[in-house]
Design a protein that fits this description.
Rossmann fold, seven-stranded mixed sheet, two-stranded antiparallel ribbon
């Protein structure tokens, strides 16, 4: 490690979660191990995808990993989430995204994710990318707001369905955060009560969980993971593979 902290550049979206403070030596050591494995892939731009059930802790882990890589003092880290690349609500009359299957098939705008974020970060000729397309809360279009992408930047993207065929080929390192389905529903319902109210549990059980099971059945992403982490207990995550 060097003494200089590299930059971490975040999305302009208001759908943000803070980076959690260190909670245990066990967690810090695991994050450090994953950071070393990512950096061990070598120079040039690296793209890291983090997936798992809703409320598995993907965004928090992505922030922790970004901070750890930046602390090495060598490489700028870009942070993005696939939730910032959903189709805008104003177009929802054009497609079905309320039930689980409709959400899986139609909620995310993979064309925008490729065009604005993934293709620029993968191309050596591109000098900038957009870390957000449409803010999922305010619905403001941020696609014209770009950040520089250094030649050795590390892009860390979290989100459900990160390893669908539409975008699976972009990743240099794949992470799956493993939690039980019922724990996902409980965590998600608690997290989203502020906007979903009494419907929060139903949304997570009947929309998100259904969508995620379709994803697992159709795509079967786990055999392609570079790291599978049991994130059931936040301060005691376990590396499963």
């Amino acid at each position: 490690m060097t003494s200089r902290q590299a930059d971490v550049r975040y999305s302009a979206s208001t759908w943000q979660q803070p980076c959690p403070p260190p909670v245990s030596d066990v967690r810090s050591a695991l994050v450090a191990e994953i950071a070393e494995r990512v950096l061990g892939l070598g120079g040039g731009r690296l793209l890291v995808g983090i997936d798992g059930f809703t409320a598995a802790g993907k965004t928090s882990f992505g922030h922790e990993l970004a901070q750890r890589i930046a602390a090495a003092g060598q490489r700028t880290v870009l942070r993005a989430t696939l939730d910032d690349f959903k189709k805008p609500w104003k177009d929802r009359h054009l497609y079905d995204r309320e039930p689980g299957e409709g959400y899986y098939r139609n909620a995310y705008d993979y064309d925008a994710a490729r065009r604005l974020l993934l293709d620029p970060c993968r191309s050596a000729r591109a000098a900038s990318c957009a870390l957000c397309s449409v803010d999922p809360l305010t619905q403001r279009d941020h696609s014209a707001e770009t950040v520089p992408v250094p030649a050795d930047a590390v892009l860390i993207v979290d989100g459900v369905f990160a390893f669908r065929p539409e975008i699976d080929g972009y990743w240099d390192f794949r992470i799956w955060l493993d939690v039980d389905a019922e724990l996902s529903v409980r965590r998600g319902a608690e997290r989203d009560q502020n906007w979903a109210g009494s419907d929060a549990e139903s949304i997570h059980r009947n929309r998100y969980l259904v969508a995620e099971r379709i994803y697992l059945d159709e795509v079967d992403p786990l055999p392609r993971m570079d790291a599978v982490i049991d994130n059931s207990v936040f301060d005691r995550p376990r590396l499963l593979g």
